[in-house]
Design brief:
Helix 1 packs parallel to helix 2. By secondary structure, this protein is of the alpha/beta class. The relative contact order is 0.30. It has a single domain, classed as D-tyrosyl-trna(Tyr) Deacylase, Chain: A (3-Layer(bba) Sandwich), CATH 3.50.80.10.
Length: 150
């Protein structure tokens, strides 16, 4: 399981010309799920995301988590995080999980984030054509893969 975290001042997801979800200061998390991913991957990544100290403290040092600042989280499914680009110029998505595996893990990840954050996590819609808007703060963008825990 892979996540791409962006520290944002604001972010939103639009589907069919309507805003589905929007947040103020916090994290926009793009999540990609592959066939080999498990609930344990989901739990581990949720803990990492909520605990990641990437918000400034009173001294301007990245020392606070999204929880510490009372921030929000917006999660968007993103199968293209598993794009394979070694051969040719057309990415292959063969490692991306099929819906029957990906949807339950995506939903579990969102629930785990909500529990750890202590409030509802906003989401896009799985497999929808979404327009994602954000104001990246920093910019701060961090990639975490559950297969690289050590």
């Amino acid at each position: 399981m892979r996540i791409l975290i962006q520290r944002v001042n604001e972010a939103s997801v639009e589907i069919d010309n309507k805003i589905k979800s929007a947040i103020n200061a916090g994290l926009l998390i793009l999540v990609g799920i592959e066939e080999a991913d498990t609930i344990e991957d989901s739990e581990w990544l949720a803990g990492k995301a909520v605990g990641l100290r990437i918000f400034d403290d009173e001294n301007g040092v990245m020392n606070r988590s999204v929880t510490d600042i009372g921030g929000e989280i917006l999660v968007v499914s993103q199968f293209t995080l598993h794009a394979m680009t070694k051969k040719g110029n057309r990415p292959s998505y063969i490692k991306a999980a099929k819906h029957e595996i990906a949807i339950p893990l995506y939903e579990h990840f969102c629930r785990a984030l909500s529990l750890k954050l202590g409030k509802e996590v906003k989401t896009g819609t799985f497999a929808a054509d979404m327009k994602v808007a954000l104001v990246n703060n920093g910019p701060v963008t961090i990639w975490i893969d559950s297969k690289n825990k050590e």
